[in-house]
Design brief:
about 260 residues; alpha+beta; Immunoglobulin-like; 2 domains; eight-stranded mixed sheet; four-stranded antiparallel sheet; 16 strands; about 20% helix; about 30% strand; globular
């Protein structure tokens, strides 16, 4: 709570990442994770990472707490883009090495899916699943405050099957892996559920200009300054983004169309 008082007024100084420690200054992992989640529910979403620095020491003990980055290549630009986009998971290198990922209706880990009525399948990708390990699903409402409002509170799931989750309210979803005796293994980053923002030009109205702005970047990779155009957040401006902005424009036109009264 004291760290919230420091970080929220300054929006965490605009930092992209927050490090999670197994133990630092008598603060354990669960408190680090809780702070990370509370920042998100209070409008300061950050990518979760571990403490992957050795400082020249042997790669043992605390150094096992590391970060896996899902990138197109190991060059600096690709790694930094993936880190900024939360395309990574973190945990204990001694207990796991492999893939731990999420997709929600095609939206990858680190992405944003628009809020809509109903439920959609969440897929948790685990390869390999360690013997005896449990996958726990966490979904938290994006409700500002000092406490977390859980929609799914560390629910044990079967990762071989899709999990239907509520997508009708602003929230985020992530997954955790724990040993049979409740020791942490690895943690994903989040997929957020947020209202779709169609006013990509930020001119306080929805118009054909917004559709044109998205269409003009067709086929391009998403740079940070154009992230608002990636309405189907997958790192590239493509037909799915154009269809989504067109649907938004069409819905807005039908809503704003003047009503005609028929006189008899």
């Amino acid at each position: 709570q004291s760290q919230l008082d420091i970080l929220l007024p300054v929006k965490a100084w605009g930092a992209d990442l927050v490090e999670t420690y197994l133990l630092r200054a008598q603060v354990n992992l669960l408190n680090h994770i809780r702070l990370w989640d509370l920042l998100a529910t209070n409008g300061v979403p950050m990518c979760g990472a571990s403490t992957s620095d050795q400082h020249g020491a042997p790669f043992v003990g605390p150094a096992f707490w590391t970060t896996w980055i899902e990138a197109n290549s190991p060059d600096q630009d690709s790694l930094l883009a993936s880190m900024r986009g939360c395309r990574m998971f973190f945990g204990n290198l001694e207990r796991f090495t492999g893939v731990f990922d999420l997709t929600l209706d095609g939206v990858p880990m680190g992405g944003v899916h628009p809020v809509q009525e109903g439920v959609l399948p969440l897929r948790v990708i685990v390869d390999p699943l360690p013997a005896g390990a449990q996958i726990k699903l966490v979904q938290v409402a994006l409700t500002p405050g000092r406490e977390l409002t859980y929609i799914r509170d560390h629910e044990v799931i079967d990762p071989s099957q899709p999990v239907m989750i509520d997508v009708s309210q602003p929230s985020f979803v992530r997954a955790e892996m724990w040993t049979a005796n409740n020791q942490p293994i690895v943690f994903t980053n989040r997929i957020a559920l947020e209202p779709l923002v169609c006013d990509v030009n930020s001119d306080q109205r929805m118009s054909i200009a917004d559709v044109q702005a998205v269409s003009a970047k067709f086929g391009e990779n998403v740079l940070p300054q154009f992230a608002n155009l990636d309405l189907w957040p997958d790192g590239v401006i493509d037909l799915k983004d154009i269809m989504r902005i067109a649907d938004c424009w069409s819905a807005n036109r039908s809503t704003d169309a003047p009503r005609r009264e028929t006189q008899e």
